[in-house]
Amino acid sequence: MKTSFPRAALFLAAPFLTSLSLMSVSPAAHATAPVPPDAEQRPHTVKAPHGAAREDVYYWLRDDKREDPAMLAYLNAENAYADAMLASLKPVENTLYDEIVGRIQQDDSSVPYRDRGFWYYSRFETGKDYPVHARRADGAGVDALSIQAANAKADFSGEQVMLDVNQLADGKDYYAVGDWDVTRDNRILAYADDTNGRRQYTIRFKNLETGELYPESIPGVSANLVWADDNRTLFYVENDPETLLTVRVKKHVLGTPVADDVLVYEEKDDSFYMGIDRTRDDKYIVIGVGSTVSSETRYAPADNPETFAVLAPRARDVEYDADHYGGRWVIRTNADKATNFKLVTAPSDATSRRQWTDFVPHRDDVYIEGYELFDGFTAIEERAEALTRVRVLKTDGSDEFVQADEPAYAMGLAVNSEPDTDWLRYGYTSLTTPATTFEVNTQTGERRQLKQQAVIGYEPSNYVTERVWTTARDGKRIPVSLVYRKGFEKNGTAALLQYGYGSYGASMDPGFSVTNVSLLDRGMVYAIAHIRGGEEMGRAWYDDGKLLNKINTFTDFIDVTDDLVKQGYAAPDRVAAYGGSAGGLLMGAISNMAPEKYRAILSQVPFVDVVTTMLDPSIPLTTNEYDEWGNPEEKRYYDYILGYSPYDNLEAKAYPAMFVGTGLWDSQVQYWEPAKYVARLRDLNTGAHPVVFRTNMEAGHGGKSGRFRRYRESAEMYAFMLDQLGLDAATR
């Protein structure tokens, strides 16, 4: 089970990219950038454990309660400045938004999956922002394809609506449903919702037979919940209200006071995240805790979850996640120097690593990312040469791979809710192929397409995807995924948008985006730089881009830019870069290190004040991430982080045009980091290119809720980028 929820959060996949330019316009020249009031009169001495104190004149922009009138006035002034600067681009933004939404099939639904006698799915209705979560009873002639066909005809007879999120979100600036779970008898739904984007959820209960909402609710929790077999007891994870850390597992008995909920487990080490789940065979409830470099799993029988046993005690530099099926545990682990992970098995009553037996051995050239257990086979998600693949390992020891037909793609396991089948569901996409769900018969090889993302007006054959390799300054080969429209010539004149992330071992695989098409139709190239800090090339790729190797992430990105320009994929003065969250750290670093190489920088919810944040354990996520960035209480890490932290390394020089975005209620990267960064950048920037700072006052790390509202935000940002790059309005 996955228990790590890092600062990355919603930026663990390449972003939806958007573009359209109908005219060449410039921001309003008369707008005046706001100046934070009393900056020089409000200095703050920032903790500096290894030398002279650091003075931070914009530290006052931090307000944990988000109530300070001066701070709010400054953010609103920046938003007003952004409005003025972007006013002349509004026609482009509107057309851009219309084009994106025009590609989307609005009355869409997910691929249904069967679980305990019901088929579950989510669907959208035309013009509405939020999904409807529903189910249909199993029966003769009912399957995934027949349900999708009925939904396509708006035939919802026989459907039971569990949650209409449109109704729940009505009148709210922000609304999101996180995890939900149905009791084993299929009668009661528990779900967690968030009303401001802070990821502090409230659990609520609904009787699916009567539609009744139960009176009790459980606030201050993560979006993670599991029912026990008695259909009355719910396990959930309680957050610390200040640090937002997942600190306690509790259980609630429906119909009893929440104040009486029993503490099941409390995690004392604040470097660990926590999550709960049920095993594949539904026999056990598991509590998983994990830090950057260590894991531990507890388990108890789901029919009597009173006492939790430890599967294997935690040990530094030993990670593992476990599932149970077929009378044994199957465990993915890096124990015993299995850097790229291996699979082992253990008996059902295991409590020690001494009971582990190798199942799928470690390989230096193959990274094991995940697995799913079936009666007749094990499906394994693997990564080799920066590409994903699905391996089917059968009980007789034979194996085979699910095939792909493109040089750059992404493949992974889909929802496989039933283990007693020969059919394996998997997802496939590329920079030119919309997201597709297949199922393949592991005995006969027959393959069926269950669904492909409908993209109105899009023809895949008009586009080309490539996988190229560039060379970093230290000789490492860096994979790059590229896409462009057919007819593109590498003559050094095109505009390029280069995306990167490079943290937490999160791999940025090439996937299709409906918004990307507009860029390509106007002759633009889109590239994903698979830089160190991710795991595209295995665990060593991650290790070589974190802690005291973090600089490699930044120099890799810059070296990819240089090589793509050298090869003729882009003009040297028409390169834009984009990253979010920890990818925003990347944007801040390259802006300081090589500002002349980028015409525009797009930075969303950027982690840019690394030293100050990592010195403050009260800030959410700080203590969980000492093994990602280093603990600056130690001098070697303090000095190293101080050498690249974007806020600390701003200086008097010309910077690229920038669009910086944040959310006031962000739980992952606090709003004051980008706010301080932009304020200081305005003080020091000697260049003439515009800097726009947009704060979403009603949302958090992922932006506004709803499927269309996020496209409006993207349209504004990309209108700014396209204007800076001087893209021609005409399609090619």
UniProtKB/TrEMBL annotation:
Keywords: Hydrolase, Protease, Serine protease, Signal. Residues 511-726 form the Peptidase S9 prolyl oligopeptidase catalytic domain. Pfam families: Peptidase_S9 (PF00326), Peptidase_S9_N (PF02897). Residues 37-453 form the Peptidase S9A N-terminal domain. Residues 1-31 form the signal peptide. The keyword Hydrolase applies. Transmembrane segments: none annotated. InterPro entries: AB_hydrolase_fold, Pept_S9A_N, Peptidase_S9_cat, Peptidase_S9A, Serine_Peptidase_S9A. It comes from the Bacteria. Belongs to the peptidase S9A family. This is S9 family peptidase. It comes from Luteimonas fraxinea.
